[in-house]
Amino acid sequence: MSDALKHKKSVSRRDLLVGSAVGSASVLSAPALMAQGAVTEWKLVTSWPKNLPGPGVTAQRIADQVALLSGGAFKIRLFAAGELVPALGVFDAVSNGTADMAHTASFFWQGKIPASVYFTAVPFGLLPHEHISWIEQGGGQALWDELYAPFGIKPVMAGNTGVQMGGWYKKPLQGLDDLRGLKIRMPGLGGEVMRRLGAAPAGLPPGELFQALQTGVLDATEFLGPWSDRAMGFQKAARYYYSPGFHEPNGTGEALFNQAAYDALPTEFQAILIEACRAENGRALAESDWENAGSLKLLQQKDGVEVLTYPEDILEALRVTTGEVLLDTSRQDPMSNRIYQSHQAALKRLSAWSDIAMRRFLSARDGFV
Amino acid sequence: MSDALKHKKSVSRRDLLVGSAVGSASVLSAPALMAQGAVTEWKLVTSWPKNLPGPGVTAQRIADQVALLSGGAFKIRLFAAGELVPALGVFDAVSNGTADMAHTASFFWQGKIPASVYFTAVPFGLLPHEHISWIEQGGGQALWDELYAPFGIKPVMAGNTGVQMGGWYKKPLQGLDDLRGLKIRMPGLGGEVMRRLGAAPAGLPPGELFQALQTGVLDATEFLGPWSDRAMGFQKAARYYYSPGFHEPNGTGEALFNQAAYDALPTEFQAILIEACRAENGRALAESDWENAGSLKLLQQKDGVEVLTYPEDILEALRVTTGEVLLDTSRQDPMSNRIYQSHQAALKRLSAWSDIAMRRFLSARDGFV
Questions:
Q1: In 3-state terms, what secondary structure has residue A61?
Q2: Which residue of A86, A368, B39, B112 has the fewest C-beta atoms within 10 A of its own C-beta?
Q3: B367 interface with A at CB cutoff 8 Å
Q4: Which chain A residue has its CA at the smallest distance from B127's CA?
Q5: Are B48 and B29 in contact (CB under 8 A)?
Q6: With an 8 Å Cβ cutoff, is A361 touching chain B?
Q7: CB A335 within 8 A of CB A115
């Protein structure tokens, strides 16, 4: 049994196995564990404040569902950002066994694993339902597993904050020239695209964004969507709210499992973990969409925010530059290239269907609502 | 214990309770049941042939997941259409306790419960992710529960076939006049819309559609999307494939539970049932989208099918007439009116967000892929 497993079970599986009559390699089933009153306890570290709307709620809900589905035999104790390890220390904590599990977002690891960004969102990439289709049907999960395997980590999708907005601007954008020198917060590949177009992307933590925007340290910032953004108060510091969120058309939450801890679970508990995360993808997206829709209305009708679309010359420059940035990332290492190729193939396949099915329907619905 | 429960458990919960020391109203927990080696067995009837791509696969997967998540303590035996009861007899079978559970689609019950159609799809209504948002966040589930309560049935969403195509036509449509006298298969409210526009909707079972289209008994037919439609062979009988699927922008599968059987389950098994169905919403949609996208390409590049959009004058007539049909359904009874009002409010709220987030992104992605 690895170090990663030593500290986490009130009755360890090893103790139970030692006491069993047969010395075979087979492990006790969940019912057998339950019969002996054993409780498996896991530590879950997250990158979010406790119950942060969206991701924080998702993390707690997954822990609650696992307890419910296992009849209390598998309990997950949640530690919010900073309680056990720092917000961005959760990957290492799961890797070295300080925690059994994390809830976070893959693009945080871009510095050490360049291609990890593909598993949150790619500029001009896949929408939420398309992203799930790539991961589950198009080979995405196998690549993600392979990418994290050297760290002893198994990743799965867990929750989704949906299609994001493009960001808050203090002045309206007339055209491409307005990006030159623009002090904007935009992480991930979108920030690099902005940089190449002459903007000055700044890396600031979420807690400092409102003040930076209000005092002029920033000219613009993106965050998530209307639900979270209104809670952050951005509408009091900037009036122009741009769409689309070209840089983040999707917002997949990431659950990380310590591989050794996961492998040691009974089959039923493995299935319960995976199914709870899968169910949360739809539940969190439904919640984000509902709340985003409600907050959008308040922003427009109560707060006087102007919701605008990026000018076409800016969008064209963003598309071209995104293509260059993605191609550059694909050349970093062979694994990045394989992930890039798989993502692009899924994008080509799924976008043709989305255009004919979903987009034509959205156009046809105009004038009905 | 109701009649509905008598025939389904290898060791009945009543036997276990009689043998327990305390005569309280509390029930044995799942771990306690497992400890005693009890297995709960349910009968699941479906409206589909065994493993029919899409819905049939979904039904089997839910049964498999329940067994896996419960460590084999809760088993569901699946009966395909006609094995225990006919395809469209599953609602009554669950209501009277012949079966514990069904997997089907709500619009089949339109004849006896007019508003049931809202829980599959509404013409010009909600897209898959919007529909889930309405059911889970916008009050849809409570209305659905109330609608089926008089029948002793609890419904939940279970799987999704995604945005549908508009249908197969033997001749291209020039304009509204071409709908007059058109012999078309289109069930649900879409069929009524077509009838009011002068078409002659015909009710034919899926197994007869190909021949009817080939021999001219039908001029046009809709079914699902490219994945299922290509398997049905429609491309050999008609060349023009229309979008959007104005009549079915969503394809929610419906799981029905006998309320008394569900209430008698331990909390853990109730949670396992619900979570397995919820997870299947995303899993089935991911599969449908992936397979639809692949089959669409084959239809266009290999089978010589022309994918067209309904002419604008037809779309405008469809919108106006759909509005009239929906208003008429809302006047059938108070419950239909409440469901109509709730659905329209959700559509207004969610479509404004979809237009700004998803639709603007789909437009901006043009020229990138």
A1: helix
A2: B112
A3: yes
A4: A358
A5: no
A6: yes
A7: yes
Q: Where in chain B is the domain with CATH 3.40.190.170?
A: 3-19+27-160+251-289
Structure letter (DSSP) for residue B163: S
> To probe the interface with B, which of A136, A360, A366 has the most B CB atoms within 10 Å?
A360
Which residues of chain B lie closer than 8 angstroms to A310, CB-CB?
364
Q: Which amino acid is at B161?
A: T
Structure tokens at B38: 């009890």
CATH topology of domain B3-19+27-160+251-289: D-Maltodextrin-Binding Protein; domain 2 (3.40.190)
Flag if B129 and A70 touch (Cβ within 8 Å). Answer: no
- Range(s) within chain A of domains with CATH label 3.40.190.170: 3-160+250-289
B86 vs A: CB within 8 A: no
Closest CA to A351 of B365, B224, B283: B365
| Chain B neighbors of A73, CB-CB under 8 A | 31
How far apart are alpha carbons B119 and B105 in whole angstroms? 8
B357, A360 in Cβ contact below 8 A? no
Q: How far apart are CA B158 and CA B106, in angstroms?
A: 11
* CATH 3.40.190.10 location in chain B: 164-247+303-332
Topology adopted by domain A167-247+304-362:
D-Maltodextrin-Binding Protein; domain 2 (3.40.190)
Strand order in the sheet with B252-258: B74-79, B40-46, B101-104, B252-258, B153-160
**Among candidates A71, A63, A9, A30, which has minimal Cα distance to A255?**
A63
Is the Cα dihedral A157, A161, A163, A166 positive or negative?
Answer: negative
Q: Which residues of A touch B159 (CB under 8 A)?
A: none
For each of chain A's 369 residues, which pLDDT tens digit applies? 333 333 333 333 333 333 333 333 334 455 555 556 689 999 999 999 888 889 999 999 999 999 999 999 999 999 999 999 999 999 999 999 999 999 999 999 999 999 999 999 999 999 999 999 999 999 999 999 999 999 999 999 999 999 999 999 999 999 999 999 999 999 889 999 999 999 999 988 778 899 999 999 999 999 999 999 999 999 999 999 999 999 999 999 999 999 999 999 999 999 999 999 999 999 999 999 999 999 999 999 999 999 999 999 999 999 999 999 999 999 999 999 999 999 999 999 999 999 999 999 999 999 898
CA nearest to B157 within chain A:
A282
Nearest to B34 among A35, A243, A245 (CB): A35
Looking at chain A, which residues constitute the CATH 3.40.190.10 domain(s)?
167-247+304-362
From the candidates B33, B230, B288, B358, which should be mutated to test the interface with A, based on the most A CB atoms within 10 A?
B358
Residues forming a β-bridge with A40: A9, A74
CB contact under 8 A, B286 and A136: yes
Q: Does A265 touch chain B (CB under 8 A)?
A: no
Taking contacts as CB-CB distances below 8 angstroms, the residues of chain B near A72 are 31
Q: What is the DSSP-derived secondary structure letter of residue A253?
A: E
Instruction: Determine the CATH number of domain B164-247+303-332.
Output: 3.40.190.10
Q: A3-160+250-289: CATH homologous superfamily?
A: Bacterial extracellular solute-binding protein, family 7 (3.40.190.170)
Name the closest residue on chain A to residue B71, using Cα atoms: A268
Distance CA B248, CA B246 (A): 6
**Phi, psi (5° rounding) for residue B326?**
-65, -40
